[in-house]
Design goal:
The protein is α/β, with parallel strands linked by helices and 629 residues long. It is built from 21 helices and 18 strands.
Length: 629
């Protein structure tokens, strides 16, 4: 049946090609100029439309879904500031290599630079942050124009999901009528079938490829790995769709290398940790001054194979830079993701395939058994101290934990408690600032089937709630979000997706009344302006926010004054409040609907307790006092 007008024909062809390319959902925000696209998406039986009122939340929702699924979820918005509100998520998608497709409706060309209402310059709006951009022509009802449109859509999806995934932008101008109003003679009756209705499948079938070294280069790298006695595999945050744990496990077995796995690498948690030497608590016992002429009994690596993005842990990054080891940075797009500039080699290859091939070629591997034992023992001691195990120093080769179990409750304990309460399987989204750092340090490797995600591309606290809910929309796993109070406030309207997009979530808000992370920085010593301009206390109560969005609510007061009657010593009080957090999260997951668990903490007290914990770990592992937290 012929479309009622050329806008309907054009938008229908565009949406059909998205579906043919494998798209199963879009996120649309209300607006007039985007009417043809929204109507076409809503009318497609194979497409789920998530309706988001706020374009910034919409963009982060789509980003979170793509991060969880590895597939693009296109965005549809009207013209003007609506398109500008996508920009923060576009920046994150670019740096974190998450597929994103922005379809921004626009005024027709003759209205640009005319003073027409809601008209802005949307050409190349996102600059060089996008992998592919095209300002589409005005809708036309002819064979060549429609073939060009279908080809462009296929290319855009292919670019978004390619070897270097990321955002793409199609600017789509429309003249009125924007609704499916019949316009006589606007669409001819004799359009070729392929132009009007497409082909059987995508109009252009994009076959992805993955770069890899040639056979000679691969054998040379395998020989280097096989000759190394003290090697490490360091896995940073993974690009969607992730790194294959089995391939990395096979390489770890072939080489004898421990795997230092970032919590967002997809390698720290899961069944493979039963057989792979996965190390997860390194942030607690590594530092720059450990490298080289560090404490007696600690050996540095002579070779490091690095996968994924730059690790979350600054202490790991600084340590590796100080070792002088040969560092092979693996990147499928040939990008440079090592800001210490200490890497010696750039290997352009898809990491999972590279690890699998190397595992079959490494000869004479196995490494130094004492080297592996060094890392495994350090990890055991650190995890025991974090758990306040009274036997933390038992069997430790390096020293006495001292008052390791006496540290007061801190926010890292809350993150550990959340992790212990997660169902299996689970998706865990963590905010930037302290939550992701606490996850990195205090939640070590486990066999639980947990997919941990975060926005570490440009590491902002904006859009965290929306990103988490987007991730939840792409899986049947239970979803938990750990977020700070400022990040929750910043994206509180993202909670609209709980109802509008039918996503259940357990939100654990660590509320320390401001920017607790600034206690880690030297500016803490300068007050004023520290309190008002950096910590920024706000005094907000989040219970009304839970009521506004229909979330069940529970508050846990973990501030020092509130714990006076919870036991006679700090460890006893810490265990009691951690149990409260674990129980609250467990109850939330066992109950229907969405929940907000607010954990009130004191930022300065938490930071001092983290420092005490770090000192205890350094004493136990290295026999010295730590000067870093």
């Amino acid at each position: 049946m012929t479309a009622p007008n050329r806008n309907v024909l054009w938008a229908t062809a565009l949406v059909d090609e998205l579906v043919a390319a494998g798209v199963d959902a879009v996120v649309a925000s209300p607006g007039s100029r985007s009417t043809p696209l929204t109507v076409a998406a809503a009318g497609h039986e194979e497409l789920r439309v998530f309706s988001q009122l706020d374009e910034r939340s919409a963009a982060y929702f789509a980003l979170g879904r793509a991060r969880r699924t590895g597939r693009v979820t296109p965005l549809i918005c009207t013209s003007g500031t609506a398109a500008a509100n996508y920009h923060p998520a576009v920046m994150e998608a670019s740096e974190a290599r998450v597929p994103l497709l922005a379809l921004t409706a626009d005024r027709p060309p003759e209205l640009r630079d005319s003073g027409a209402n809601q008209t802005a310059d949307q050409e190349k709006l996102y600059g060089d942050a996008v992998r592919f951009y095209k300002d589409l022509p005005e809708p036309a009802a002819n064979d060549r124009a429609l073939r060009s449109l279908r080809t462009t859509v296929a290319r855009a999806v292919g670019a978004a999901e390619g070897a270097e995934p990321g955002p793409v932008h199609l600017n789509v101008p429309f003249k009125k009528p924007l609704e499916p109003t019949p316009v006589p003679d606007d669409v001819p009756d004799d359009l070729p079938e392929a132009a009007e209705r497409g082909r059987d499948g995508p109009y252009v079938d994009v076959t992805p490829g993955a770069p890899e070294p040639g056979d000679d280069e691969l054998r040379a790298l395998a020989a280097e790995l096989g000759d190394a006695d003290r090697g490490l595999i360091v896995a940073g945050p993974a690009d969607p769709p992730g790194i294959d744990p089995e391939a990395v496990t096979a390489l770890a077995h072939a080489t004898g290398f421990p795997v230092l796995a970032d919590p967002l690498s997809g390698l720290r948690y899961g069944g493979h940790t039963r057989v792979a030497p996965v190390i997860g608590s390194y942030d607690a016992y590594l530092s720059a001054d450990l490298a080289g002429d560090g404490p007696e009994g600690w050996s540095d690596p002579d070779l490091v194979l690095r996968l994924g993005a730059s690790p979350t842990s600054k202490r790991l990054r600084k340590y590796l830079a100080g070792t002088g080891a040969a560092q092979y940075q693996v990147d499928p797009a040939g990008g440079w993701r090592e800001a210490e500039f200490a890497a010696t080699d750039l290997v352009v290859a898809e990491p999972s395939r590279l690890c699998a091939r190397l595992s079959r070629l490494v000869a004479g591997g196995g490494g130094d058994g004492d080297w592996r034992a060094q890392w495994e023992e350090a990890d055991r001691v650190a995890q025991a101290i974090h758990a306040r195990d009274g036997d933390a120093d038992e069997g430790s080769a390096a020293g006495d934990a001292g008052d390791a179990t006496d540290a007061a409750f801190h926010e890292g304990d809350a993150v550990r408690a959340v992790a212990e309460a997660l169902p299996d399987p689970a998706t865990l989204f963590v905010s930037n600032s302290m939550p992701v750092r606490d996850l990195d340090r205090f939640v070590g490797a486990t066999t639980a089937n947990v997919t941990a995600l975060g926005n570490r591309g440009v590491s902002g606290i904006d859009g965290i709630v929306s990103s988490a809910l987007g991730a939840g929309s792409g899986t049947t796993d239970d979803l938990t979000l750990v977020v700070g109070d400022l990040a929750l406030y910043h994206d509180s309207n993202g909670l609209l997706a709980v109802d509008r997009c039918d996503v259940d979530v357990t939100v654990v808000a660590v509320n320390n009344d401001g920017g607790g992370i600034f206690h880690k920085l030297p500016i803490e010593s300068f007050d004023p302006p520290f309190t008002e301009s950096f910590k920024t206390p706000h005094g907000l109560d989040f219970e009304p926010l839970a009521a506004l969005h229909g979330l069940a609510y529970e508050r846990i007061d973990a501030r020092p004054d509130a714990l006076a009657d919870r036991g006679d010593d700090p460890a006893e009080r810490a265990a009691a409040v951690a149990e409260d957090v674990t129980d609250a999260v467990a109850r939330a997951h066992e109950s229907p609907g969405s929940h907000l668990v607010e954990v009130e903490t004191d930022a300065e007290a938490s930071h001092r307790a983290r420092e005490a914990s770090a000192a205890a770990v350094d004493r136990a592992v290295h026999g010295r006092e730590s000067d870093a937290s």
